[in-house]
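Before the break, one more example. Copy the sequence into your notebook; we will annotate it together after we see the structure.
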Amino acid sequence: MSIEDKHILVVTSVYPMTADGNHGAFVREAILRLQATGAKFTVFAPAYEGSKSHVLDGVKVYRFRYCPKHFENLARDGAPTKLQRQPLYLLAAILYILLGTLQLFWVCYKEKPNLLQIHWPFPHGLMALPASILLGIPMVFSFHGAELMLANKFGFVTHILRWLLPIAKGVTANSSFTNGLIRKIFDGSVTVIPYGMTIKPKPPKKRSPEEVPKLLFVGRLDERKGLRYLLTALPLVLAKYPVRLRIVGKGILEDEIKSQCHAMGLNDVVDFLGFVSKEELADEYAGCDIFVLPAIVDSKGDTEGLGIVMIEALAHQKPVIASAVGGIVDVIHSGITGLLVPEKDPEALAQAILTLLSNPIKAQKMGQEGLADIEVRFTWHRITPIWEKVFANALDSAVTRKGTETLA
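Here is what the structure looks like once it is written out:
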């Protein structure tokens, strides 16, 4: 079955408010690429501090309200971190599920989609279940890793996912790491589909001899990104080479990270850029010497499911230094497109940075190899047909089942 003229409703916790937004940009990019198939897409996502429903790229985005504005940011900077640090957000989480379930049912009744794509099946699979069963809409579950790491910590999440997974007509994982987590609780078919870039890459900029080498970090400022370990590694690097660290992103730990930076006397060599436009982000990638993602398995058991920022850095022909955790190992070939180091190890991070700073020819070669690699494995030309096949198979499966039930 083709997905042309089919209506797919995408349920997600993050989706950009504007074309230049970064929150959930990879979900938007996948939809943009899949529109070429002739399918129609609608998005169901939480409101952010009272934001209203809107249209983006010709796609209707339903923003469901679940809390007073002040607390309506549960998913914006990482729900598990907020729940751990601010217990009052537990009430917001309960309302998110209850009110989201009711509003999703109403949207499904109104829009009559042919298929539901459920990103982060916990809690969204639970929220979509009434609409799926009562309105007869098949579901595809798309896992990103975080919900499965949560299942490792909380047994009830595992039980819910074990119950929900057999109901889905298709299951996808964003990396082999995420697939491995799914395999612990489900023995059915899983399709591994990574995501591609969300920005248009620019040619790498040449640094003038008088310029200081630049390290770049891009990501949410939360525990699992491991930025604290990079800051700890920085004095070890500075003892041998002058460098600047450019940090793109914001998050719940921003004040603490800035305080650490100040306490370590690093204010003069670290730039906090906050959120930037896609054009500015491409400039940062193009202008850096090394991209660094010091991710960790955090105190909640969460870690990187894939790491799209590394794919974007490689697209700009930049070598990547990252921790060997989660889905990162799917992206970086250590010693070829970058260097992988143990997590939570500032000394190893510093040594890897010094290795590339002392050998710019090697660093350049890694960047070139990285570009060649992602042009094979992480292009949307390869990814989009896989999504199309998963959706078509799910629709076929639902039609076959209905036919069987009718004959019975």
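The chain is about 45% helix and 15% strand. The first strand starts at residue 7 and ends at 11. Try to locate both features in your own notes.
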